[in-house]
Amino acid sequence: MDDILENMTTLYNSSFDNITSSMDNFTNMTTPPTITAEQSHLVVRDLIYNHLGPVVCIFGMLTNIINLIVLTQNQLPESPYTSLTGLACTDFCALMLSFIYMEFSKDTYTYEWRIFDAYIFIGLVNVCTTSSIWITVQLTVERFLFVRHPLWAKDTCDRASAKVKVLMTVAAAAVFNIPRFLVFKPRYYKDMWILDSTEFRHSTAFFVINWLYSVCIHFLPLLILSAANIYLVFAVHQAGKQRQKLHIRNNREAAWQREQRRLTITLISIVFLFIICIIPSAFSDFPIAYALFGGDKTKQQFKTSSFYFSLQYIANFLVWVELSLNFVLYCAFNEKFRRVMKFTANRCIKKLNVPFCRKKNILLHVNFKSGQSSTRNSVLHTNSLTMNSKGSLVHHEGQPLQKVIQTGEKQETVPNGDTPLLNQSV
Predict the structure, then answer these.
(1) Per the domain annotation, does 72 fall within a domain?
(2) Which structural domain, as residue segments, surrounds residue 237?
(3) Domain boundary residue, one of 333, 366, 396
(4) CA atoms of 44 and 84, how far apart (whole Å)
(5) Which are the contacts of 311, defined by CB distance < 8 A and separation ≥ 6?
(6) Is residue 328 part of a domain?
């Protein structure tokens, strides 16, 4: 996604008039043009940037907010969940920036929005996506080491070190993407502000940097993730066989192994989604795309061709999909994530005092050790589930408040009003 605006912004110069050499033939984009075969990418652009893209970004922002709420709970203290929290932050920021671009900046030709595009959106969205990619690589490598050397990893891979790794990854991504802040500048043309390329973008240095981006942000992560994922799939398969041979049943070690296995499967699914969605983006980078699909066209002809624009649009859309679907994978493959989400939702419902839940008195009880959850309902004038302990207050609906006092082998209930005494065995 590091070229997300590289060609999206050249639409100001090429979408409606097929630039041949300069902006002399630039037409007013507010007038709908007649779409020719060479401009068929405008249909793809309209479909993705005006319809599908915003919907995917809204869905992704909402699900990443849920991810952040759940992953920061104390019931998920393991280091991979800390890294997944960082991943949710970078994914949310990338989707938010992309949504702002599509809904507000894309077709607005004021100086302020061109400043936003040139010096905020292009650079920051690439910082976020680069961070997201390498946090995924970090997670996968950490899980690979955990499977290969579990005792060493258990002692060294803690929450604090995970936070440091995530912060270092984001910092490195910010430094690595500094050139992205220097490739465009605002330009006033025919009563509107457009984006124009800087001299740096056309320099040999930036051409080399583009190749470096393609290798470090796409092909190298794809290579590492593919190799590590193949091993993890094999390791999970072997662990299942070994567990069946040893007939491990309900003990603490078996529960811990199951939890780690589920976490590994979750990461495997994340990597599979990443590989599927990022491969088109890797081949949409201009140096790679021109080398593979350029044919007899010049660089300028290929860069303004309908095929290349369409490839960019589809690649960017798949990246937004990849940034948005982690929540679905967590819910599908990680039982502990689902349990914590239910627990968090129940706690929020209590705090918000939702009328429907207050009327029905619906409480969701989650057992984090057994993984079981149940819903218990109590209505007025029916017995409710109570826990009697020394000095605790027990309140049955329809009865006065009673105080339970521990006396020897029996509990004697001392009433507040005229309720008869209740003797219960301890």
Answers:
(1) yes
(2) 11-333
(3) 333
(4) 33
(5) 280, 283, 284, 289, 293
(6) yes
Tokens of residue 96, six digits:
């938010």
- In one-letter notation, the amino acid at residue 186 is P
Last residue of a domain, one of 333, 351, 368: 333
Location of structure tokens 């009003």: 417
Structure tokens at 94: 């990338």
Query: What are the per-10-residue average pLDDT scores of the chain (426 residues)?
Result: 46 34 30 51 92 96 96 90 95 96 92 95 96 94 84 79 94 96 93 92 91 91 90 78 60 65 83 88 86 87 90 94 93 90 90 61 48 43 40 40 42 42 36
Cα 36 from chain centre: 38
Residue 210's identity, in one-letter code, is N
Residue 246: the pLDDT is 61
| Within-domain flag for 342 | no
Distances in whole angstroms, Cα of residue 35 to Cα of each of 18, 38, 190, 373: 11, 8, 22, 57
Of the candidates 260, 3, 311, which has an alpha carbon nearest to the alpha carbon of residue 130? 3
pTM: 0.75
Instruction: Clarify whether residues 280 and 392 are in a common domain.
Output: no
Q: Which of 120, 117, 101 is nearest to 57 (CA)?
A: 101
Q: How many domains does one find in the chain?
A: 2
